Amino acid sequence: MDAAPAPADPPPTTRRVQLTLRKPGVRLWGGIRPTLVIGGRGQPVQWGVGTWQVAADEPAELEVFLYARGWRFGDARVVLAPADPPALAYRAPALPFGRGRFTSV
Questions:
Q1: Other Cβ atoms within 10 Å of 73 Cβ, number
Q2: Is the pLDDT of residue 1 over 70?
Q3: pLDDT per residue as tens digits for the range 38-68
Q4: Whole-angstrom Cα distance, residue 3 to residue 14?
Q5: Residue 53 CB: number of other CB atoms within 10 A?
Q6: Distance CA 54, CA 47 (A)
Q7: Interval 67-88: pLDDT, tens
Q8: How far is CA 5 from CA 1, 8, 10, 11, 33, in A?
Q9: Pairing of strands 71-80, 60-68
């Protein structure tokens, strides 16, 4: 007698997003770390490569900004759809004003 087929694994409820945070080699600011906001929740992060967990079936809104002594700059925002590639890079501005930018890795 044949065995019943095994039930399929349920789809994952979360996915990982890889974000590379880059500061320019020549800049007119120093000692500032970025802040990452995912779904309205902010968290200080470090320069370099990191991964974060987001919902697998919903778009994920990511925002990065720099903050120093009451001055916020380098803002960049992106919305990742579930089908988008999971790796991005953020590039901070060289001057302590202006916008940052996201690019695909």
A1: 18
A2: no
A3: 989 999 999 999 999 999 999 999 999 999 8
A4: 32
A5: 12
A6: 20
A7: 988 889 999 999 999 999 999 9
A8: 12, 9, 15, 18, 52
A9: antiparallel
